[in-house]
Amino acid sequence: MSTTQRKPLSRDVIVLGWVSFFNDVSSEMIYPLLPLFMVAVLGASATSLGWVEGVATAAVALLTAWAGWRSDRFRKRVPYVRLGYGLPVIGKGVLIAAVAWPLVLVGRTIDRVGKGIRSSPRDALIADTTTAADRGRAFGLHRAMDSAGAVVGVLLAAVLLWWLTGTPTKGGALAQKEHAETAFRTIFAVAAVLGLAAVGFTFALREPPHEETPHAPAATVGGVGGLSSAYWKVLALLIVFSLANSSDTFLLLRAAQVGLAPWEVVLAYALFSFVYTIVSYPAGVLSDRFGRWPMIALGWVIYAVVYLGLAKTGAVAIWPLLGIYGVYIALTDGVGKALLADHVPRERRGFAIGLFYMATGVTTLISSVIAGELWDRVGPASPFWFGGLAAAAAVVLLVIMRPWRRMELT
Fold this sequence. Notes:
Elements: H1 11-30, H2 34-41, H3 46-74, H4 78-97, H5 101-128, H6 132-165, H7 177-201, H8 229-242, H9 249-257, H10 262-290, H11 292-312, H12 315-342, H13 349-377, H14 382-401
Helix pairs in contact: 1-6, 1-7, 3-5, 3-13, 4-5, 4-7, 5-13, 6-7, 6-10, 6-12, 8-13, 8-14, 10-11, 10-12, 11-12, 11-14, 13-14
């Protein structure tokens, strides 16, 4: 089907795009500053940072399968989406008041609990309202809106950081702990207020009509009825790669460690988000036309190259490496979800996508803790050697297995 013949994407896909846009404006004002806040203001170690991000991701892992199963069973996606976007506002409130890194852990966990509740029902809602021919395009648009919000969020954070601290130089006001702390907490407060806009947009969502499927086996939390062998092969390969994929906060900590000032770290992250934004939608469209696996394989290769580059880089190279990293995310994030949805019947999608989040959440916890320990015990370059080589091994496994030759769409 040519692009000109395609029908417009559904209303819910568009609304969810705006929900994610405003949520990411809010969240990404905080995300690039969080490792700097923890290490420079609260005195946390890289290992503590690894635990915060790992446990927060594990919170997503513990809830996504349950939320997906519930939304499948009761055929209600929207309430879980709304609650999932509401909880992060509370989590940001905890961050504003945090005086020690364990409170950051609490705030991030509340934020990620919200993500765990919303992610599977949201992605299932996108899949429910699209056909297989347009699914990559729909997920690509959603990721593009999400990452556009990230660009706006990090740029807004950079402007506020400059405004609150004066001329942005490495030896300037951010070198003073108390001044930096005031700036960070003010930005967190602005982000919390903006997060309410995302919640407001969820009230424009509508549940799609559902076909009756009385003879379909019931999915349960303890069972996996209706999930094909093709789905499990896809999931297994995505899990293997996720063992190499620690939290992105280590990229930002690396940027600061090699000499970037805090405002430069934020702008470098904005570059990553900008590239992610402009590539996400075309990547989804290309995956509809040429297949999901070629996009994912290329993304994994890019990840390995970027991580190995970060292991050896100086301050100047951080900028292009983070830009290229945005291409990796665009090629794998939305396309990976579309690939999973392709191999699962509609009445199992929430649960199936939830299993993906759960499994990769556990592996991200493991990889993030490993990255933190390597940083503290071996050196700042070591997490990137580990991640780059592990990703390269995943690419080799993908080439050996060649899953695209044996999998048929559901």
